[in-house]
Amino acid sequence: GFVRAWPSGPPLRAAPGHCHTGRMQRRTLLTLGLGSAAALSVAGWGARAWTPGWQRGRLSAPARGVFAAVAQAVLEGVLPQDPAVRAVAMRAHLDRVEQAIQGLAPATRGELSDLLAVLSLGPGRWALSGLGVDWAEASADEVAQALQAMRVSGSQTRRQVYQALRDLTNAGWFADAGTWGALNYPGPHRL
Asked: How far apart are CA 77 and CA 179, in angstroms?
């Protein structure tokens, strides 16, 4: 015969003072509808705001902004002081970062693309770096503090994000033989 899934006993009752007729009340329906609409709006905004960090073999504009801000902090002291010269050096640096990323395995580029997209959005930037302002608006000191917090974080994910940003920034900068003098590195020995 038929076996009941529930033990026999008294029927379930609503808590005292609460009406439960088995039908959804109008207030509950309106609340559910408004909550669902808000959730869909946020999800839609997130989908529209999501820009992959790597598109058609290049960094997206938001991803370039992340690396430009990180470079201002990581390369402090080796970047040119003159604003015009610094701007030229930064564009060349970001191009070299792209070259370094092109050398990564496709799966790694995909993961990096997703990471840069998350870092480009306010909630993701705050969750991973602790940076409360947009990368372009943050000072070099604010970015340096965020990077330091990631470096010493108890979260392995945050430490890995820090290492990826720092390593790619350094790879892009020091790939140019003209930057080796800041390290007193004469270059590779001739064989």
From this structure: 12
User: What was the pLDDT predicted at 4?
Assistant: 43
Whether residue 130 contacts residue 142, with contact meaning beta carbons closer than 8 Å, is answered with no
Place of tokens 């009406």: 19
Instruction: Name the nearest CA neighbour of 173 among 61, 86, 111.
Output: 86
User: Token pair of 119, please?
Assistant: 């870092």
Please spell the DSSP secondary structure of 66-109, one letter per residue. HHHHHHHHHTTTTS-SSHHHHHHHHHHHHHHHHHHHHTS-HHHH
Nearest to 80 by CA among 186, 181, 188: 181
Low-confidence ranges of the chain (pLDDT < 70): 1-50
Q: What is the mean pLDDT of the chain?
A: 82
Beta-carbon contacts of residue 106 (< 8 Å; ≥ 6 apart): none
Q: Are the C-beta atoms of 107 and 40 separated by less than 8 Å?
A: no
User: Amino acid letter at 173?
Assistant: W
By residue count, the chain amounts to 191
Cα distance between residue 71 and residue 86, in whole Å: 11
**Joined tokens for residue 107:** 């799966």
Distance CA 119, CA 63 (A): 8
Whether 166 and 70 have beta carbons less than 8 Å apart is answered as: yes
* Alpha-carbon span 54 to 105, nearest angstrom: 13
The whole-number pLDDT of residue 18 equals 52
